[in-house]
Design brief:
alpha/beta; Metallo-beta-lactamase, Chain A; 6-stranded mixed sheet; 12 strands; 28% helix; 24% strand; 247 residues; 8 helices; globular; binds zinc ion
């Protein structure tokens, strides 16, 4: 469902910062925009044929928002007129934080639009997009994203340590529904651990739960061993061919 520019945590130079997107026709939704993923976004030439971009930010840690200003400037050079940042309708402060964050870096608010989640109709088959406040760190607000599609619901948890919210998802998870969640390979005070996730999601549904935000390969192996799906960093066509040829 989602494609990934990066799948790593804050300092993971190889896997890059976790950053996902959906592209449909000439519209694109980007979820989070960390510093280590921005260069990759340009390398993959992701904005070819795109004229409407929506950006969702889960929270203000640098691996999730660090390159937002650069991305807006970059989209400007690509002549993408419709640049939209989706903000939680129930949290004026979060909206202001994003606007200030951009303004401090010289991005005037007349080159992008602020769209409230309740008004965000991004794709024809995605009638609803909403943020839900979740637990991550005392200092910052963090939001999960819930996206309703015609046949499924998709939950995206940028960073969290929110067992209660995860349990509420597990309880109502439909057979087509998908969950994307960070999983801890490091700081257990800020991130939910794979063990916690394994306690919440029954073995039968773990394939519907895609882990991301990895610390290292060990972290990925452990997620797989427990039966979870894992997010995979996208390759360009050239990289893919190169890899095949070298085998
Ligand atoms: Zn974080
Ligand atoms: Zn993070």
């Amino acid at each position: 469902m989602l494609k990934f520019i990066g799948v790593g945590d804050l300092l993971n130079q190889e896997m890059l910062n976790t950053c996902a997107y959906i592209k449909e026709g000439n519209k694109m939704l980007i979820i989070d925009c960390g510093i280590l993923s921005f260069k990759r976004m340009m390398e993959l030439n992701l904005f070819e044929d795109v004229n409407e971009v929506y950006i969702a930010i889960t929270h203000m840690h640098p691996d999730h928002v660090g390159a937002l200003a650069s991305l807006i400037f970059y989209l400007n050079t690509k002549n993408i007129v419709s640049k939209n940042i989706i903000v939680p309708s129930e949290d004026e402060e979060q909206k202001q934080n994003i606007v200030n964050f951009l303004s401090l870096q010289g991005v005037e608010n007349d080159i992008y639009n602020i769209v409230k989640d309740e008004d965000a109709i991004i794709f024809n088959d995605m009638p609803k997009f909403s943020y839900k406040k979740i637990k991550h760190t005392e200092l910052l607000k963090s939001f999960a994203i819930e996206m309703s599609f015609a046949d499924k619901k998709v939950y995206y948890l940028g960073d969290n340590i929110d067992e209660k919210y995860q349990k509420s998802i597990a309880k109502k998870l439909g057979e087509n529904d998908l969950v994307y969640t960070d999983c801890c390979g490091g700081n257990t005070e800020l991130h939910i651990s794979l063990l916690q996730l394994a306690n919440i999601y029954d073995e039968k549904v773990r394939k519907q739960v895609c882990c991301m935000h990895f610390k290292d390969d060990e972290n990925i192996d452990e997620a797989k061993r427990l039966g979870f799906s894992v997010a995979i960093k996208e390759q360009s066509k050239e990289e893919y061919l190169k890899k095949i040829m070298s085998h």
